[in-house]
Structures are given as C-alpha cells and as structure tokens.
Design a protein that fits this description.
The complex is a heterodimer of chains A (255) and B (530). With 255 residues, chain A is of the alpha+beta class. Helix content of chain A is 17%, strand content 25%. The radius of gyration of chain A is 29 Å and the shape is extended. Helix content of chain B is 48%, strand content 9%. Chain B contains 18 helices and ten strands. In chain B, helix 15 packs across helix 18. The chains are: A alpha+beta (255), B alpha/beta (530).
Chain lengths: 255, 530
C-alpha cells in the first residue's frame, strides 16, 4: 500500500448520512452491471509494463490526496546522474519531489515548499496523502544526491486540489446569458454593485427576476424599429430612462 | 401554474450503459445489460411518458441519453437480438404460468410478467424498435427535454488536463445529438458529473447551455453562491451549472430512508434465473452454464437476507407507490416553500437520478414517477415541474461562479475512479490520448485507408476512456470483462498507431474492428487536432 499518513485532518465535507447515501447510491449504480456470480473469464492480453519514456503524472484523488505514477528509463537516470556533483552522483537515489506551487507560475525554483519521497527503481505509483485542500501541486521524479542536489528526470502538470471548505468571501458577480442565433451564448456581465446597489428611488436590493422584468419592460417600451429609448428605469425608480451604456445595472462588471 | 407556484422541481433521468456490441458472439453475457435496461427501464419509462402525454399531464422531465446508449439503441444487430430476448422472456413467462398452475399466487405473478412483457413487446413494435425516435417524438411534442452525455462517458478529472481529448468527448457527442435529433443539445451530462474548472469552456464552444454537478461543487464554488444549489451558477464561459439537491436524492437513493428499500417492493436479487433448474429457463439459459438474471422475480424485499422472503404482492406494492409519491410530492412542496421564504425567489430543486434506478433496481420506480407527475399536476400548485433549459429561459440572470472540481461518486471526488483497483489503467489511457493528438497533428492529408485507421484509432481511444471500466473494477461486479475490454481497446489503438506510423495498415484487420467497434460512424479524427 503506497500511501503516506495524512499530515492534517481534513474537514468533514459530507455528513455521515450523506456518506451512507452515497455508498448506497454506488451500490445501486453497480447493480446495473450485476449479472450474478462472477465466472472465471479471460481478462485479455497483458498491457506493456512501460512505454520507454520518462514521464510522471499527477492526478487529484480528493482534496487531500494525489495519485502519482511515473516511468523512468535507464537512459533517463544516467542523464540525470551526469547532472549531479560527480562526488555524489553514484550514491544518488530515485526520488519524487512534490512542490507546493499554490498561486504561482512554477518555474522550477519558486515553489512555497517541497516534499521529497524516496522511491525504489521498481515502484510505479504512489497514493500520496498531502492533506492540503485548495492547494496547487506539481510533481517531479528525479535523482537526489546525499548532499541534497536534485536532478529532474520528468515533471508533471500542475494539479489543483479542490477545497473542502466554502470560499470565505462572497464577492458576487452576475451574468445574463441567452442563446444566440448562431448557437453561441450571449453573455452580459454585471457586477453586484450594479445589480444590488441602492439607487435613489430604487429598492435596496433587486432580485435577478426584477432585473429581468425591467429589461422586458424596457424592450417592450422601445418604439418599433428601435430608436433611442434605451433601458427602462427600475421598478419604483424615479429616474428617467438612460442610454443603454449608462443603465445603472450595466456597470463595467466583472466575471 | 407558473404564476402561482413557489418554485420548481427538475427531475433528470440519466440513462447510460457502456458500448457493448459483440457481433462475433451473441452469448457474451454483458450484452444482457442492454436487454435488461430496455425491458426494465427504457420501455417502461417510455410507456409512462406516453401515458402522461396522452392524458394531458405537462410533466416536464429531462432525459439524458448517453451517446453510447443512443448508438446501441440505434444498432440493427442489437435491436434484433433484443427482440429475440424479449420473445424468450414472453415464452418463459408463459412456461412459468404452466409450471405454477397449482400455486395461485405464483401463477398470478407469472401472468403479471407475461402481460407485462407482452405490453412491452407491443410498445416496441409500435415504435418499430426505434426507442431513440420515440423519445425524440416526445421531445418534439414538448413533453420531454433530451440531452446527451459526453461521447463515451469519459471521466474528465482523470484525463490529465488533455484538453483536445476532453474536447473530443464533448464534440463527438454534440455532433451525434445534432444528427440524431435535428438541433443542438441544450445540456450535456458529464461522465459521473466529473467536473474540473475549464470544462465549461469546451461546452460553450458547441453552444451547450448547462450541465449538472453534485451539490458540493456549487456550495464550494468560487465565490460562494448566495442561493446554495437552489439556483444554477454561471461558469466564466456562461454555461450554467446546476447542483444536485441532496434532500430529494436521499429520499430515493438511501437504503435506510429511501423509498426503493421498502419491504413490500419487489426484490432485485431473488430471480428465477438462480432458483430454477437450468432446463426450465428455456432460451434464457446461458450456454456456458452461468446463472444470469431473467427479470422474473417472485419475492418482495421483506428484509436484507436472501432467504425466507415473502412472495411479492403487486397490489400492496402499488398502494405503497402511491403513498411514496404523495410523500415525495409533499416533501418537495414543503422544501420549496421553505426555500422560497428563505431566498425570496423561486428556487429550483434539481433531482437527477440514474434512469436505470427506475424499473431495473426499483421495479415500481416508473409507476412512482407517473404518480409524482400526476399529483404535481392535479393535486397542488406549489411545485412546478420544469426542465433546466426552461428555467434558464425564465431566469437568465444568475450569479457567476466557478464550480469546484468534483464528481457525484462516493466521497464527492475521484476516488471511485482512481484507486488501487484501477490506477493501473491510466498510464495507458493518458499515453493513448497524447498519441491521438499527435496523430491528428501529423496526418493533415491522409489517404482514404489512413483516414479510416485514424478514425478507428479515435474510436478505440474513446471506448477505452469509458468511466464504466474503472467503476466496475472498483465495484467488483464484472471485473474480468471490464479489464478485457480496456486491454482490447488499448491493444487495438497501439496496433493502429504502429501501422499508421509505419504506413503498413492491414485493411482486413481494420475492417474487422470497424465492424465490431462501430459507434460514431461520422467520427472525424480531426476532432483531436489541438
């Protein structure tokens, strides 16, 4: 079992009842593949042990755990050994190095921290419990010399670990989306300030439904063939209609 | 009703099976998955929907037909084999009537099955075996909203951010839908609801308006949504993510408190396929001697054990269905009323389920759905059934947020598809996907033979990416078959890759695998071009 102990206790995401339901659900989902007692059958020709390339890949299993798998060739190991100090190269060992790259464009040197995991030549995968929900991780496989020098053989893509806790700050933004005639989505971005900010004569907080209703009223109020009349004022507002580009709920917006 | 309802209930039934087609061997046991699902779920649901439509009940339900399932239901060979299977069921039921002539209760149950199978045969014949067309007609008449899944139900969180490969899963399915149904799909079901940020961009590229995620994906979105899962959120691309409502899910899925586990309902496991001598099973006896489910079951759940079960009482079960439907309807009314008061806007309760839950696992499930929709229409006005696309039409302004990476699997993330039973598959899947992108980039002007090989390589890649294989390896049901299928597709892909690279394509071998793995006949390998 290639799993390290958790370094921190993850917050409970699901209640025990929800977990039990999820287990029942998986059992019921499995029933559609249930044909009765399994009989002995061939499982097909074996697949190649490797593809003769140096590679490491990292996948998120859950917010605290990564799956790492890798392949290294003898040539790749030799090339890495040649990049190490000559006095230590022969004693260098294969090693996984997992970088915490949260919020950074990783260039190989600017991680917050890293964790080294020595591995054997015949090992191919690890389930690694990092206990860092919400972080970004990048893994390398290489040779680590006794003095600490590390020669990379391969690097994975960055993996973003999901959070276990809700986003702490609610800075809302809003969109109005409609299907366009060309099949693409037509998007209008709004900001919370535009949607919900109090304006003289306007209710303190407009719901999205009220915004939609105001838009429909504005469209219906437009003279036939278009014209200069733009968006209607909000329900209850004493303001006159304003040109479309200056309508209160169309701020600069942000996604 | 729209003017007085407090909120919306959106029932979504996701129908999916992996692509299983063995023209070379009609006895491969896993072909029974399709036969059972058609008999127990798809035909009964079709009957329910047609009945509701005929009675003028505006039930507004969404059905997700996965791309592999559409391919199998449209396949002439599989349709013929299913007809033979259904005929064998009818014969077996008739034989059971005779065998149980001295046991009035069992004879009555056998008659129930004979009548049921005859009714299914009538519906099948009425639609000439074209179930996809039947569902399409319901959509065209405004009764249903149909969406499609990703091409082979690939699990995006496991695809190592290979965006061209993920894009191919989306586009192949979207193209299939448009060819089959005549317009764009409004929504797409991601395999296992597996979402990673950025997937929505792929959906937006083909004009998809919405997808479904598990509830925690919305609750953990960035930023946190104001209305929990009771309103969708717009991803940065403008595609809406609807979050699964946990309360309505638990009432159906939970073994402790959910409806399907009621003791009077028909038991799934006690089947005459295991209880009777093989010689009494007729054409449904498997030639290998292996015991399989027939679908004829005489016992009620009664308790958790397999022995000492009560005989099934259809009338008692029917009565219980009505009570459960009433309970479900009442609970949704209560829930929606509370949410409306809390949020000040009409909430949507999205209730997605595996379609095969209804009928295959829960025998009475289709009748439950019928009762629920009838009660919603005739007995109350708090809850309005609505599809996700209709909701977006009515309420196009929503909060913008990025859902959390997630799935609807146990634990809410990827463990079911990434664990020690199945992790060994991913080096092969990832390498094949990378090679397919390289092949698409390399072959700009292939010969016709090369084009066929490239298209077939794309099919083999898609087939190996089915989320069902690692799922089955985790659950331990038909592991040997799942492993064999995966290995076969990897081997075929590798051989096609070698032949393309060396320009030595074997046309006879290619024709053979084209015939066997024949889904997506219009597939164009260039969908993998980055």
């Amino acid at each position: 079992m290639t799993t390290r102990k958790p370094t921190s206790k993850p917050a409970a995401e699901h209640t025990s009842a929800a977990e039990a339901t999820a287990t029942d659900e998986q059992r019921i989902l499995a029933a559609k593949f249930d044909l009765g007692p399994e009989v002995d059958r061939e499982a097909g020709e074996p697949l190649p042990w490797g593809y003769g390339e140096c590679v490491i890949r990292a996948l998120s299993v859950d917010p605290g755990q990564l799956l790492l798998y890798w392949e290294v060739t003898d040539e790749g190991i030799d090339a890495a050994r040649r990049r190490l100090p000559a006095s230590e190269a022969e004693r260098a060992e294969l090693c996984l190095r997992i970088y915490d790259t949260t919020g950074r464009i990783f260039d190989g040197t600017n991680a917050h921290s890293f964790l080294d995991v020595p591995i054997g030549r015949r090992e191919r995968q690890w389930f690694l419990e990092l206990g860092k929900p919400g972080s970004e991780q990048c893994a390398e496989v290489g040779l680590r010399a006794p003095g600490g020098a590390f020669a990379r053989i391969a690097r994975s893509l960055e993996v973003a670990q999901p959070r276990r806790e809700p986003w702490p700050v609610t800075t809302e933004s809003w969109m109005t989306v409609r299907p366009g005639a060309d099949g693409r989505l037509e998007i209008e971005r709004l900001s919370t300030a535009d949607v919900l900010a109090p304006v003289a004569g306007r209710p303190a907080a407009l719901t999205p439904e009220e915004i939609d209703a105001a838009r429909i009223a504005a469209l219906e109020a437009q003279p036939p063939g278009g014209g200069t009349a733009a968006e209607a004022s909000h329900p209850g507002s004493s303001e006159q209609s304003q040109p479309r580009s200056e309508a209160p709920w169309r701020g600069s917006g942000q996604a | 009703m729209a003017s007085v309802s407090s909120g919306y209930l959106s029932v979504l039934l996701h129908a999916h099976l992996p692509f299983v087609r063995h023209p070379e061997d009609p006895t491969v046991m896993e072909q029974a998955w399709l036969y059972e699902a058609i008999t127990d779920t798809y035909l009964p649901l079709l009957q329910v929907f047609e009945g509701l439509h005929a009675d003028g009940v505006p039930f507004r339900c969404t059905v997700s037909l996965s791309a592999p399932l559409v391919s199998m239901l449209d396949d002439a060979l599989l349709r013929r084999r299913y007809e033979s299977h259904l005929d064998a069921l009818c014969e077996l039921a008739s034989a059971e009537i005779e065998r149980n002539r001295d046991d009035p209760r069992r004879e009555g149950l056998a008659r129930m099955y004979r009548d049921r199978f005859a009714s299914l045969r009538t519906t099948w014949d009425c639609h000439r075996g074209d179930l996809v067309g039947a569902f399409a007609r319901l959509q065209d008449s405004g009764a249903l909203e149909i969406i499609i899944s990703t091409a082979t139900h690939g699990f995006f969180p496991s695809m190592n951010r290979n965006w061209p490969a993920m894009r191919a899963q989306v586009r192949v399915a979207a193209d299939l839908y448009e060819r089959r149904f005549g317009h764009r799909t409004p929504g797409m079901w991601l395999g296992e609801c597996g979402y990673v940020p950025g997937v929505d961009e792929l959906l937006a590229e083909v004009g998809i308006r919405y997808f479904v995620v598990d509830g925690h994906a919305v609750r953990l979105a960035t930023p946190a949504p104001r209305f929990d899962v009771h309103a969708p959120i717009y991803c940065p691309s403008g595609v809406a993510a609807f979050g699964r409502d946990r309360e309505s899910s638990e009432q159906v899925w939970s073994a402790l408190s959910g409806y399907p586990g009621d003791p009077v309902y028909r038991d799934f496991y006690r089947d005459i396929g295991f209880d009777l001598p093989r010689e009494q099973l007729g054409a449904l006896a498997h030639p290998s001697g292996a015991r399989l489910y027939t679908g004829i079951k005489y016992h009620a759940i009664t308790h958790k054990e397999l022995h000492d079960k009560e005989l099934y009482d259809p009338q008692a079960a029917r009565g219980r269905v009505g009570l459960h439907a009433s309970h479900f309807r009442g609970e949704r009314g209560r829930q929606i009323g509370e949410l409306r008061a809390r949020y000040g806007r009409p909430p949507i309760v999205l209730a997605p389920y595996d379609a095969e839950l209804f009928g295959h696992w829960w025998y009475e499930g289709p009748v439950f759905l019928s009762d629920v929709f009838r009660q919603l229409h005739f007995d109350q006005d708090v809850v309005e059934p609505l599809t996700p696309a209709e909701y977006l039409d009515r309420h196009p302004t929503q909060a913008a947020a990025t859902p959390s990476a997630s799935s609807w699997g146990r634990g809410g993330y990827n463990e079911y598809w990434l664990n020690e039973s199945n992790a060994w598959i991913y080096p092969h899947l990832h390498r094949a996907a990378e090679r397919m992108v390289e092949l698409a980039r390399s072959f700009r002007e292939p010969t016709s033979l090369e084009r066929r090989a490239l298209d077939q390589a794309a099919r083999e890649l898609l087939l190996m990416q089915s989320s069902d294989w690692p799922f089955i390896m985790t659950t331990g049901t038909t592991v040997a078959y799942a492993e064999r299928r995966l290995r076969e597709h990897v081997h075929r892909f590798r051989r096609l890759d070698e032949q393309l690279t060396s320009r030595t394509i074997d046309p006879e071998w290619l024709a053979g695998i084209e015939e066997r793995d024949n889904l997506f006949p219009d597939l164009d390998y260039r969908v993998y071009t980055p």
